[in-house]
Amino acid sequence: FDKRDGVIWMDGKLVPWTDAEVHVLTHGLHYASAVFEGERAYNGTVFKLNEHSQRLIDSGKILGFDIPYSLDEINAATNLVLEKQGFQNAYLRPIAWRGSEMMGVSAQNNTIHLAIAAWEWPSYFDPAQRLKGLRLDIAEWRRPDPKTAPSKSKAAGLYMICTLSKHAAEKKGYADALMLDWRGQVAECTGANVFFVKDGVIHTPTPDCFLDGITRRTVIGLAKARGIEVVERAIQPEELEGFQQCFITGTAAEVTPVGEIGPYRFEVGTIVQTLMDDYMTLVQRKTGDAAAA
Ligand code: PMP
User: Has this prediction a pTM greater than 0.90?
Assistant: First the structure.
């Protein structure tokens, strides 16, 4: 990944991909003082760019820092990277972090950096597995209480337990893991939100200790537009047995059906298929209203 052609936007300039480096004494590396975004462009337009850039700014504020660029500047830089990379369809990764001036837990005055990269990433999961429905493990790690970690920030540190859970699942042959929260309730996957279907009604956990994903909110809107009832509530793991369909949502994952979670089985049913199609139709609209929807 570190040796590619192309450019990365870094602290206000476009730099060659191979030169986009940071010092080893970077605070963000040692103490996880970093926040990031995951965005996708379809047909040359970044889907919900404004919401992603705003979440990046808010994530930084939650970690106690101000990104030294305005919303408009971040949007413009993101569009510039996409244009310079020459991609119509791409994944974009903005990241902001505390720099290297002070080394220690306290780093109040370290410079805040921002970088934005873009690459081609057609499918987050294996396309064949996607069609059949993913196989998910149930993670041993749990999403922390919001009093234990800043769960509303898309903060790098929160991904430590995600990588641990995803690696453990992959070692057992699963595509990903479903994570419970500290109370033992169903929370989300390692990089996506989760939904269930029972008797034509969609059920999804209340996002009180994990990201209320931009894709999650989009898909809830699409379901409601189809007249499908969506219930946000606490979901216990014992309930998994009674659900007929399951899917996950995320910028990278888009809408992906789930075929099994541990011992439980789900069909790739009509509601999942409808929402997959509706989501792809929405994101691929080239008009400005896709960004506004
Ligand atoms: N939860 C986690 C842990 C994630 O990393 C993501 C991806 N950003 C999501 C949920 C889904 O968020 P979004 O739909 O905004 O991409």
Answer: yes
Quick: pLDDT tens for 266-281. 999 999 999 999 999 9
Same domain, 115 and 175: no
CA of 229 to the centre of ligand 1 (A): 22
Q: Is 154 a catalytic residue?
A: yes
Instruction: Choose the catalytic residue: 61, 132, 147, 154.
Output: 154
The span from the CA of 74 to the CA of 77, in Å, is 5
Q: Could you report the per-residue pLDDT of 91-107, keeping only the tens digit for each?
A: 999 999 999 999 999 99
Both 70 and 152 in a single domain? Answer: no
ipTM comes to 0.99
Domain count of the fold of the chain? 2
Per-residue confidence (pLDDT) for residue 286, from 0 to 100: 62
Q: Which atom of ligand 1 is nearest to the CA of 210?
A: 1
Q: Which residues pair with 134 in a beta bridge?
A: 258
115 and 133 share one domain: no
Residue 254 C-alpha to ligand 1 middle, in angstroms?
10
Give all strands (DSSP E) within 26-151, no chain letters.
34-36, 39-42, 45-46, 90-98, 112-119, 134-143
Do the bridges between strand 90-98 and strand 39-42 make them parallel or antiparallel, or are there none, so unpaired?
antiparallel
Residue with CA at minimum distance from ligand 1 atom 10 = 192
Q: Whose CA is nearest to atom 3 of ligand 1?
A: 191
Site residues for ligand 1, CB cut-off 6 Å:
38, 162, 188, 191-193, 210-211, 213-216, 249-251
